[in-house]
């Protein structure tokens, strides 16, 4: 792609060091970074000078003045909307298109498709929507010429392509505001075993953590995130078996089983809600809640107080967990059927959502098999 060549030429002129890697279009996944030669562990494959970062510090003063009190997220997104520099156009040319963003980002999906998101993803989306609405209210008041569609596109770009960065000048800001954009580095896709990313006062450096064959894709690690989080924040999921941090929420199927008195007791002891299941086990909160359904109140309290071995009730708790998981599995199948009938959005969006439900189904089924 000519856009990639222009980006690399521009970046290298500006002091970006690219060694043994290069951007490449990847079918169905946009642009990624691949090895142009065999790489060893510990090689510095990309160095981006600090002066190449898009930060709060180098945002035009009129924007900072107009958006005083806004989040860095909103300020950077507004800066992208108003950017006219011809050099930046070279960088912008490799960004995902507005159609790409509308397709992959749930916040831009039709409401009918958003309704079919898994419960935990819907909760994450609700929080994201609140953040966006707060930012948009300030931006549209200051810049009425910016359309909501334009700002949402730029807001998504900032949300999905920024890196963590903090300086003495920004260290007192909330952690969520420690964000910068940087060229070339923002083309790396995510993997749990991705390359190491580090920064100092001079530059950002990306370093290999294991050998890589020529032609293989290289990744960085966005964080220890579940697939629900990856879907809502970045617009993709990983195959379930490749994401060690994937988990699903069982609240919809477990919470209704408790009486008002039991719920009050769980709330008082800090064990109400957020019942999570990962590929290895249900969380301790889940086991504690399930034990309330299997034991007398006195026995349940004795476990909390360390007077009763929790393993005594293990089989009963596992049996109850299987019942919850069977209800969850039934709901999963229902949602997949509903999704098959859905015509909202486009096929790529629906396929992404379908894949997420299937991942959850595999996790539930594997747990049931393991417990029986």
UniProtKB/TrEMBL annotation:
PROSITE patterns the record matches: SET
UniProt xrefs under Pfam families: SET
A GO MF term: protein-lysine N-methyltransferase activity
Domain SET as annotated: residue spans: 19-223
InterPro entries: SET_dom (IPR001214), SET_dom_sf (IPR046341), SETD3_SETD6_MTase (IPR050600)
Organism domain of life: Eukaryota
Gene3D superfamilies: set domain protein methyltransferase, domain 1
Protein name as it appears in the record: SET domain-containing protein
Species the sequence originates in: Metarhizium anisopliae BRIP 53293
Upper lineage: Eukaryota, Fungi, Dikarya, Ascomycota, Pezizomycotina
């Amino acid at each position: 792609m000519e856009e990639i060549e222009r980006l690399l030429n521009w970046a290298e002129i500006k002091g970006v060091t690219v060694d043994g890697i290069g951007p490449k279009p990847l079918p169905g996944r946009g642009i990624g970074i691949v090895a142009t030669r065999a790489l060893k562990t510990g090689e510095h494959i990309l160095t981006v000078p600090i002066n190449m970062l898009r930060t709060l510090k180098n945002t035009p003063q009129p924007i900072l003045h107009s958006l005083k009190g806004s989040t860095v997220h909103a300020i950077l997104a507004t800066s992208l909307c108003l950017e006219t520099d011809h050099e930046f156009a070279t960088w912008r040319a490799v960004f995902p298109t507005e159609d790409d963003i509308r397709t992959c980002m749930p916040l831009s999906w039709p409401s009918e498709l958003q309704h079919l998101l898994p419960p935990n993803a819907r909760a994450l989306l609700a929080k994201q929507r609140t953040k966006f609405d707060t930012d948009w209210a300030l931006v549209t008041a200051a810049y009425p010429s910016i359309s909501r569609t334009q700002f949402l596109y730029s807001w998504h770009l900032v949300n999905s392509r920024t890196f963590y960065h903090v300086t003495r000048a920004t260290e007192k800001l909330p952690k969520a505001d420690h964000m910068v954009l940087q060229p070339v580095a923002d083309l790396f896709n995510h993997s749990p075993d991705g390359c190491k990313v580090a920064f100092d006062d001079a530059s950002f450096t990306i370093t290999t953590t294991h050998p890589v064959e020529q032609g293989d894709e290289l990744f960085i690690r966005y964080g220890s995130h579940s697939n629900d989080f990856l879907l809502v924040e970045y617009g993709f999921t990983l195959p379930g078996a490749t994401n060690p941090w994937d988990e699903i929420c069982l609240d919809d199927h477990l919470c209704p089983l408790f009486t008002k008195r039991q719920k009050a007791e769980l709330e008082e002891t800090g064990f109400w809600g957020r019942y999570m299941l990962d590929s290895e086990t249900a969380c301790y909160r889940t086991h504690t809640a399930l034990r309330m359904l299997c034991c007398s109140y006195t026995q349940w309290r004795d476990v909390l107080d360390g007077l009763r071995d929790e393993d005594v009730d293990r089989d009963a708790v596992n049996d109850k967990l299987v019942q919850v998981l069977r209800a969850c599995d039934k709901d999963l199948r229902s949602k997949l059927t509903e999704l098959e009938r859905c015509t909202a959005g486009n096929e790529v969006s629906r396929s992404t959502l379908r894949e997420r439900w299937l991942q959850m189904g595999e996790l539930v089924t594997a747990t049931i098999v393991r417990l029986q």
